[in-house]
Amino acid sequence: MTIAEKQQEVINEFSMFDDWMDKYAYLIELGKDLPVIDDQYRTEQQLISGCQSRVWLHAAYHDGSIKLTADSDAVITKGIVSLLIRVLSGHSPQEILSADFDFLETIGLKDHLSPTRANGLVSMVKQIQLYARAFHLKSMQ
Amino acid sequence: MAFDVENIRRAFPILNQEINGKALVYLDNGATTQKPDVVVQSLVDYYHKTNSNVHRGAHRLSQLATEQYEGARSYIASYINAAQAREVIFTRGTSESVNLVANSFDGFVDAGDQVLITTLEHHSNIVPWQQLCERTGASLQVVALDENGDLDLQDLQAKLSEKTKLLALAHISNVLGSINPIKQIVGMAHARDIPVFVDGAQAIAHTHVDVQDMDCDFYAFSGHKTYGPMGIGVLYGKEDWLNKLPPYQFGGEMIAHVSFEKTSFTTLPYKFEAGTPNVSGALGLEAAIRFIEEIGMEPIIAHEDNLLEYATDQLEKIEGLQVVGKAAHKTAVLSFVVEGIHASDIGTLLDQMGVAIRTGNHCAQPLIDKLGYHGVVRATIGLYNTKSEMDVMAEAVNKAVNMLR
Ligand SMILES: Cc1ncc(COP(=O)(O)O)c(C=O)c1O
Question: In this predicted complex, what is the ipTM?
Answer without folding.
Answer: 0.88
